[in-house]
């Protein structure tokens, strides 16, 4: 798939932008702070209804404006669709396809699929478990858009259950009994929705593993495809079958076992929000966690491999996602730069941002745009 046309209105630093794009490699070159990332961020937003840089919509709307619009015509297997999202911080967002409103904006998620490489990707390796969980969930939703609903239901249930645990933890007598019996309903909800999310994550990790080994071998000099691995570490004991019903029961058992701790601490201690994606490097006995052990270069290679593996997995699902390489080349040594460039050069559309043209490897020398003072100008 590729974006053939992008229109922005009051998105980030752009009052109005209208730019025609082509398949293949496109580089946006400009000094710092000119709006290169803002531009590719808009395409990523259209894909996931969230940004790789911020967790709320407010910073995405141009300062002083109260609404932003991102509109893109997207070409997939020769057919074009016009996708549009209206961002209304503090009010409901709206989405349209071919100018027809969607009942829920969430329905637009996954129609454009992007894989974004960004300087912050090192946090996938060095950051908190929540960074890796977000990585998995973002990928899950791109592959199976329906799971966006499961993910947000889970967050909502978790919030409500946590506040009930706090109440039940300090209540006494009849009001404690009432809170505890309501808690059972929320235990069931958490286990039902949590086990669906857990099952989906377990399946995703298994699907990703072979691609990860291959990707790490491709980006890290001298590595073999057995070197890099991932393992999903749930916060509960998994049953032998690991089917959805088992997962739900395993979660309920674990919730029952941690009841006292949960009431004492007033938070949910069991569920996918407590799980970890363990990243490891090495062979056999010398397999070590990446976090805390790997060198800076190895950590970078691992982060790149996670993104490349995501790209390969989405591609294996049958559609070439749009690749965004946001300011990553300045972070990489010459060898990794050209390796990465060669690996992605065949993608249907690669959008690159860089402060200086010399940072963009030869293999990605395609269409060039200069970005300066809010203007995006094609260079002949
Ligand atoms: N909501 C907003 N309203 C107005 N301006 C904004 C908004 N959000 C960001 N900006 C401006 O956009 C600019 C940053 O743009 P962007 O992140 O795209 O830069 P860039 O060209 O990618 O730079 P770099 O090379 O440093 O990464 C900053 O000057 C910032 O002040």
Automatic annotation (TrEMBL):
<dbReference type="InterPro" id="IPR042174">
    <property type="entry name" value="RecF_2"/>
</dbReference>
<dbReference type="Pfam" id="PF02463">
    <property type="entry name" value="SMC_N"/>
</dbReference>
<keyword id="KW-0742">SOS response</keyword>
<comment type="similarity">
    <text>Belongs to the RecF family.</text>
</comment>
<dbReference type="InterPro" id="IPR018078">
    <property type="entry name" value="DNA-binding_RecF_CS"/>
</dbReference>
<dbReference type="InterPro" id="IPR027417">
    <property type="entry name" value="P-loop_NTPase"/>
</dbReference>
<protein>
    <recommendedName>
        <fullName>DNA replication and repair protein RecF</fullName>
    </recommendedName>
</protein>
<dbReference type="InterPro" id="IPR003395">
    <property type="entry name" value="RecF/RecN/SMC_N"/>
</dbReference>
<comment type="function">
    <text>The RecF protein is involved in DNA metabolism; it is required for DNA replication and normal SOS inducibility. RecF binds preferentially to single-stranded, linear DNA. It also seems to bind ATP.</text>
</comment>
<keyword id="KW-0227">DNA damage</keyword>
<keyword id="KW-0238">DNA-binding</keyword>
<keyword id="KW-0963">Cytoplasm</keyword>
<keyword id="KW-0234">DNA repair</keyword>
<keyword id="KW-0235">DNA replication</keyword>
<feature type="binding site">
    <location>
        <begin position="30"/>
        <end position="37"/>
    </location>
    <ligand>
        <name>ATP</name>
    </ligand>
</feature>
<keyword id="KW-0067">ATP-binding</keyword>
<dbReference type="InterPro" id="IPR001238">
    <property type="entry name" value="DNA-binding_RecF"/>
</dbReference>
<keyword id="KW-0547">Nucleotide-binding</keyword>
<feature type="domain" description="RecF/RecN/SMC N-terminal">
    <location>
        <begin position="3"/>
        <end position="357"/>
    </location>
</feature>
């Amino acid at each position: 798939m590729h974006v053939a046309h992008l229109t922005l209105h009051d998105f980030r630093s752009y009052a109005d932008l209208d730019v025609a794009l082509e398949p293949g490699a496109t580089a946006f070159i400009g000094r710092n702070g000119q709006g290169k990332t803002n531009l590719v961020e808009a395409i990523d937003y259209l894909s996931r209804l969230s940004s790789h840089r911020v967790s709320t919509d407010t910073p995405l709307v141009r300062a002083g404006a109260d609404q932003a619009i991102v509109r893109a015509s997207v070409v997939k297997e020769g057919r074009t669709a016009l996708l549009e999202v209206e961002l209304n911080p503090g009010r409901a967002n709206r989405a349209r396809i071919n100018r027809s409103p969607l009942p829920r904006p969430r329905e637009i998620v996954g129609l454009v699929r992007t894989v974004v490489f960004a300087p912050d990707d090192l946090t996938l390796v060095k950051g908190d478990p929540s960074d890796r969980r977000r990585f998995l969930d973002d990928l899950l939703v791109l592959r199976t858009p329906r799971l966006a609903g499961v993910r947000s239901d889970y967050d909502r249930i978790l919030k409500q259950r946590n506040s009930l645990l706090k109440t039940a933890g300090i209540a006494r007598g009849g009001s404690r009994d009432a809170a505890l019996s309501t808690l059972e309903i929320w235990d069931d909800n958490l286990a039902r929705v949590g086990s669906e999310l857990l099952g989906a994550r377990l399946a995703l990790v298994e699907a990703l593993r072979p691609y990860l080994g291959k990707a790490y071998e491709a980006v890290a000099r001298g590595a073999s495809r057995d070197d890099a691995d991932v393992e999903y570490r749930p916060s509960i004991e998994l049953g032998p079958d690991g089917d959805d019903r088992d997962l739900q029961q395993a979660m309920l058992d674990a919730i029952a076992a941690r009841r006292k701790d949960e009431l004492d601490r007033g938070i949910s201690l069991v569920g996918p929000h407590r799980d970890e994606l363990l990243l490891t490097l090495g062979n056999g006995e010398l397999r070590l966690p990446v976090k805390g052990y790997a060198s800076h270069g190895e950590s970078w290679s691992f982060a790149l491999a996670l993104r490349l593996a995501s790209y390969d997995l989405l591609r294996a699902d049958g559609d070439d996602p749009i690749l965004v390489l946001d300011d990553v080349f300045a972070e990489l040594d010459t060898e990794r730069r050209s390796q990465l460039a060669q690996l992605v050069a065949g993608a249907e559309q690669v959008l690159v941002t860089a402060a200086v043209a010399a940072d963009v490897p030869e293999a990605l020398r395609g269409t060039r745009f200069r970005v300066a003072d809010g203007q995006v100008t094609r260079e002949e």
